[in-house]
Every structure is written in structure tokens, then in C-alpha cells.
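Table S2 (continued). Query chain:
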Amino acid sequence: MYKQLIRPFLFNFDPEKIHYFTFSFLRKSFKVPGMASFLKAKYAVEDKRLEREVFGLKFKNPVGLAAGFDKDAKLYKELSGLGFGFVEIGTLTPKPQAGNPKKRLFRLKEDQAIINRMGFNNEGVEAAVERLKKNNGDVLIGGNIGKNKVTPNEEAVEDYKICFEALFPYVDYFVVNVSSPNTPNLRALQDKEPLTNLLNTLKQLNAKKQNQKPILLKIAPDLTDSQLLDIIEIVQTTKIDGVIATNTTISREGLQSENKGEMGGLSGKPLTSRSTEVIKFLAEKSNRSFPIIGVGGIHSAKDALEKLEAGASLVQLYTGFIYEGPQLIKDINQAILKE
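Corresponding output:
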């Protein structure tokens, strides 16, 4: 029903406006008596065989929602009710920021893709914290953290520290985002020295806590093999808990849609092969010494299984969820059970 009726209607409107409309619609739908139970029965797959223990956390199933969809932790309970095993909020920054000027979100229908140059638009970490206080452990939450646009790179560590401390009591794991192409010079923080310094600082903060939280690094798909080897070395040196591969790409290779020239990060089907290649490279070259969450171009159960086979322990959806709807979550979990 989603692909035949709902998606054609939604795709008639501006992508960013329809995103907020969908949020409002979902929130109201879950308040209708019996609707939450109906949607859970329709899309959620409950089976002990789907449970995964990764970096010390128990996931009810290995299919999560990637960061960027529920930036401000406004809809994590409803999204979990559609069958996701975990929800990653953010990217959050210390101070609220409006992000880049609109229009900044573009559908590439012919390519089953999206280009965004949102620019870490969010209401700030403290606003998200207030919403996360209502979680009560019902939903496994990842906290994706970044820096404010006005913060120079040499002071970026302080922004990540602020977000880490504020979110610590309310999230289950952290994701350090230094790979978005939409904040000026952010990707320079992926270089070996600044990245090692940033991760070591967060690890030191973590070590002071009574119950430490896993810290993951989200990387770009545009890194060279040499840079990926550096990432493996950094992960092993800093002893962080894992990697999310991958963020959006700045590549435009092979695109057909008229919006292909827009600036920003590309997500969706064109990223399928490259993100899987990165997962496989990291897994093989590191001898699977750390967990990987696979994300990028998952539009079918087959795409997800390929990422798991390549070395991912868990997968995340974003653009595939927009194009395929919640049935995709169910399809992946059912396919995993058949393996």
C-alpha cells in the first residue's frame, strides 16, 4: 500500500515539508486507539532468533534507523513501533542551529536517491535530552553527535564533549560524526591526528563513568583504501567500540536525475555497492576486530543481507525507508530468519 498509494502522494510535495508532515501524521496515528498495536502487528517481527548482542548491548533485531531522520528525538517511540530494533537520533550539536538555507533536500526519483545539504539543523542537545527523559529504556537509542557550524575545527573537541556529557544518561551508544559533507571543513576531522585526539578525549570522559557507553565512529564512503587503513589503526589504537559505514557521498557517478548537480551528500541506491565495499574492506583488513554497522543504499532485504555477509553486525535504513516504507524493515528481518 505504501509504494502504490502513499509514496506517490507524498512525493508530490517538497521533501522537507513532507518530512515534517509525516512526523506529525505518525505521531497522531499512534494516538488513535488500537493503531499502535495494528502497526506493530503489521510490520514488527518479534523473534528471539533476531536478537543480537553487539558492543555489549542487546538489540531486539539488527535493523535500525540511521541518524538524520529523527534528529531531535521527537518520534523515536513511534518509529520503534514500526519494527526498528534501534533508533539513532541526531546529529545533535551543543547549540541549536537552523542549518543551511532552504531548499536543501532533493529527491532523485530515477536514481532512488536523495541529496541533502541540511547542515546539522537541530534544536540543540538539551532539547533532545528533555524528550529522551521519557524513554524509560523502551527504545534502544544511539546518540549521533557533531559540532556547531560556527565552532572552528581547533575547538571542535569541546562541542563533542558537551554533547557527550549531556546525552550520556539517556542514550545507549554514541556516534561521532566527522563525515557529513554539509558542515564546512568537518571532514578534515577525519584526518589521523585530529580524529585520534577527538576519540581519545571522549574515551577518557567515558572511562570516568560508572557504566561506560560504546563509542562508534561514522565514516564517509569517499575515503581511499589508505585512509580506511588509517581508520582501522585509529579504531584499534583508541579502542573505540566500532564503526558505522557509511555516511553520504559527494560522488555523483552514474546519476540520471535532473537534481544530480545539487550540492550536498548523496544517499540511497547509488551508494549500495560502495558502502558494502567499505564494510568488506574494514572487516577483512581488521580481521573483524571491531563491529561494523552497515548503512547506505539498503532498499531491499538482499541489500541488507549483502552488508551482513560483508561483515556488518547490524544495519541501518534511511533513504530506503523513505522509498520502500516500513515493509522494508519486516522484509529484512524475515529474510534474516530464513538464512
